[in-house]
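Sample intake sheet
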Amino acid sequence: MQKRQLQKLRRFHELDSLRGLASLSVVLLHFVDMFYPHDRIAMRTPDQARVLALLSPFYGGHAAVVVFFLLSGFVLALPYMAGRREPYSRFLQRRVVRIYLPYLAALGVAVGGSAIWHGHLGLGDWADNLWTTPPDWASVRDHVLFLGNYTWTRYNMVFWSLIVEMRISIVYPLLVAFIARAKLWAGLLAAVMFPVVANKVIGHWPPSVQSMETVGYVGTFLIGILMAKHLDQIAGWYRRRGKAEHWAMTGIVFVMYCFGHLLPHMSKPVVLLAAIGLMVLVLNSETGHKLLAHGVPLYLGRVSYSLYLVHVPVLFALAFMLRTQIGRIEFLIVYLVAALGFASAFHRLVEQPCIRLSRQIGRPKVAYVPP
């Protein structure tokens, strides 16, 4: 029992690396969205189409967000499942400091970029949905307060997922308490029902789309919590499989994760199943451990949240400055270097202080003893 508790309390560095690689795939996705937009598919040359098809496994945006939510549900539940319950007020304060404060800093960066550069880039519908007009007080206020159905992609299109994360954090302790006490079938049923109900409401009540998006992703968090609860059983199931089954599972997960978004009406469940399989492989595969234990994945894992937050302002600022001056390949290189560099600085100056501050919340203060 003690060994299982320690297993659930250890830090899974391989999951940090997975989050980092998922963040990098979002960075690449947004480059593709800007320079090879879907509304201009007919304008792509055959060579461009072949290159994009070849690289498609490396820029899976929606799949990456599913991984983020699944990881959040899983990692946050581990201490609870190991018997270390946290008071609700402390949990919420720590989440606000850890997630919301860096978000506010990134919002400031995006609003500042929009104030300096705004207008139509002329690169397609996707690029012309962001930074088209100067900032205004009402939109900034809505982004700060998370209230109402507003254009939550006006300054940075990744902000929607942070809004979902913070809204679900408010009820997360209730979710983990439910899963801790529920039977497996009840937890799975709840995880399925949330997105089903959300999709039904979205189809019949358009003004509630944003709120229902949040409700739908509650199911993904529940799956992550279930994986934390049954971590030992999952590991035992994987160990009982043979090497051939491991390789077959790896191939199936890879195909589902990279190309599941192409399946009409089935993309969301397929991508979710792929993300679950990916986590199972990362947590239990020795090969996965070795691949994710090297410097680059670990570095990406450390700066993953910062990279996710700041890469869009970097992309649009560079597009306004350089889009007519250099080729797309050169732009991609400059973009990756600038995004990673800015993310490293943001991580050091903003995210790390927030991490340290969040860890101090709830700790007993040490009384000063004069010498």
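Comment: The longest helix spans residues 328-360. The chain has one domain: 2-360.
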